[in-house]
Amino acid sequence: MSIRPAVRDDVTAAGDPDNFRLMRFLIVLLMSPAGRRSFTLLLLGLSCFLWPQEAHAYLDPGSGSSFFQLLIAMLLGGLFMLKLSWQRIKTRFKETMARKRKQDQHAEP
């Protein structure tokens, strides 16, 4: 007796269609000159963190409070952006759930 995984109608054997859209977007992005430049800059920026070197620098006592203030500002900025786009997020979630319920109703006999 073999166990077969359940397969939904909207999922192909290779994966979710949304994954294909993401992959297509990334391929188009990396093929464009601006996309390649952005990707190169991202890799260069990340390499600064992956291979750190000695930085004979001095951190004064106020540096910690400045860093803490930056973290709080980032958190509050993120919450403000969430507040501004909350209605769109809520609407998109409701549409997705309604579409899923509709598909489930059509799938069941």
Helices, strands, pairings?
Elements: H1 17-31, H2 33-50, H3 62-84, H4 86-107
Helix pairs in contact: 1-2
The oligomeric state of the chains shown is: single chain
Total count of domains: 2
Tell me the total number of β-strands: 0
Measured distance between first and last alpha carbons: 26 Å
| Shape designation | flat
Helix content: over 70%
The H-and-E topology, N to C, reads as HHHH
Q: Note poorly predicted spans.
A: 4-13
Strand content: under 5%
Characterize the biggest β-sheet: none
- What's the gyration radius in Å? 23 Å
Structural class by sheet pairing and helices: mainly alpha
Counting DSSP H or I runs of 4 or more residues, the number of helices is 4
Calculate the mean pLDDT score and round it: 77
Question: Care to describe what's here?
Answer:
- The protein has 109 residues and is an all-alpha fold.
- The protein has 2 domains: 41 residues; 44 residues.
- The protein is built from 4 helices and no strands.
- Helix 1 crosses helix 2.
- About 9% of the residues have low confidence.
Short descriptors:
109 residues, flat, single chain, 4 helices, mainly alpha
